[in-house]
Design goal:
The protein contains ten helices and eight strands. The chain is α/β, with parallel strands linked by helices. It has a single domain, classed as 3-Layer(aba) Sandwich (Rossmann fold). An eight-stranded mixed β-sheet has the order 1-2-4-3-5-6-7-8, with helices on both faces. Strand 7, helix 9 and strand 8 form a beta-alpha-beta unit.
Length: 291
């Protein structure tokens, strides 16, 4: 299989940034490696094994250390498993799955089965939201609750806006390597500046074959069948998956919707305060109910 990394040197530079981000988190962790039907999956785990399990699933062109930073602090109440998504610029296999079938759902359920965990909480951002919803579609029997931040697979934004604000600056950066174009891209996607994202995506755009396939949306009949409690944090200024549009559709199609909140001033990638709010909500929901 031809590697998704364009050069060995490019892969080395991207994974060096991965390692640096993980080191900067200053946490106790272990690597797990799980063989699945779709290839080897790398997982970073932290926290006490006796705590309830939570799986973190990062977004497109991301990696597990980003998810650990986004949901920092969960190890105080959970055994945390941060998954490197397949076919992304990270340490898992480079097998690209089909977003339209049940492959992602089968993959995550294989991971859960191998880990021998139940009553699992899932939390994910952007493309991670699609993966989580696919997991519920395939088999939700071992899932306790899910938290989706600016998730894919519920609504899509205006493709013309996306073309001019995201894809054209990205392509111009790839062609010219001029930093002004990646700065323009990041300004549209990120609510606040992120130095790591700038360094990481600068390498990813140049040295990794990204997937530009259209993102599907879940159909109403499938959404109606989901029974697992769902919390959604929608981003008000998200051009990719618009928050207000997402709220309207989610309230209509998910009978198990527990909570939906609009982060009014958030672009697609939340700022640190919104990430803290999301993490605190997950932690608060994990507290035992007082009778």
């Amino acid at each position: 299989m031809v590697s998704l990394f364009k050069t060995a040197k490019g892969k080395e530079e991207i994974l060096s940034l991965y390692d640096q981000k993980l080191e900067d988190l200053n946490i106790d962790f272990e690597y797990l490696n799980i063989d699945t039907s779709y290839g080897s999956t790398n997982i970073i785990t932290t926290g006490i094994t006796s705590n309830p399990p939570i799986l973190l699933i990062h977004g497109s062109n991301g990696c597990a250390p980003i998810a650990l930073e986004t949901y920092a602090g969960l190890a105080s109440k959970f055994k945390v498993y941060a998954i490197d998504v397949l076919a992304q610029p990270n340490k898992s296999a480079e097998t690209r799955l089909n977003m339209k079938d049940d492959a992602y759902g089968k993959w995550v359920n294989e991971i859960i089965g191998t880990l021998k965990i139940e009553d699992v909480t899932l939390a994910g951002f952007s493309f991670g939201g699609l993966i989580i919803l696919k997991t519920l579609e395939f088999d939700e029997s071992k899932i306790k609750e899910v938290y989706l931040s600016a998730p894919a697979y519920i609504v899509n934004g205006n493709p013309i806006k996306a073309l001019f604000k995201f894809f054209i600056p990205m392509k111009r950066y790839i062609k010219t390597k001029k930093t002004k174009y990646i700065s323009k891209f990041l300004a549209e996607v990120f609510t606040e500046p992120d130095e790591f994202a700038n360094n990481y995506l600068s390498k990813v755009f140049l040295y990794f074959n990204m997937d530009f396939s259209p993102i599907p949306v879940i159909d109403t009949e499938t959404a109606n069948l989901i029974k697992t409690p769902i919390t959604i944090f929608a981003a008000g200024n998200d051009i990719i998956f618009p928050g207000s549009k997402m709220i309207k559709r989610a309230e209509r199609i998910f009978p198990s919707l527990k909570r939906i909140q609009l982060m009014k001033d958030s672009k697609h990638v939340q700022n640190r305060l919104d990430n803290l709010m999301i993490t605190n909500q997950i932690l608060n929901d994990a507290r035992p109910k007082i009778s």
